[in-house]
Write a structure and sequence with these properties.
Elements lengths: L5 H20 L3 H8 L5 E2 L1 H8 L3 H9 L5 E4 L8 E5 H10 L9
Antiparallel strand pairs: 1-3, 2-3
Helix pairs in contact: 3-4
Amino acid sequence: MSVVNWPELQAIAVPWVIMAKRSLQSTTLSQVASLAGPEPLWGKPDWVARRYGLPRYRVFELIKEGHFRSALIKRKGRKKGLRLIDLTSVNHYLEEHVSPVESNG
């Protein structure tokens, strides 16, 4: 096991931290958003539940009721597969159920 003394570590780490801090200061919000990539079009039920704050069972109820479009991807002859939900349908459903905000003043 090798031991690194503090001056050696500091000589390596400090310039890197300064460089990283400078690059973050000059980064705009749109640049940060572009690093995240484009918005996904489809998502797994658990991910949709977490992202939109819905219980998992409610996500499946909304699929069954026809409010959320979904696709089941599975191999021929298999019972199980991958369920994906169209996020456009989720957003459309939520937009339909937005209630106006009342102002108290």
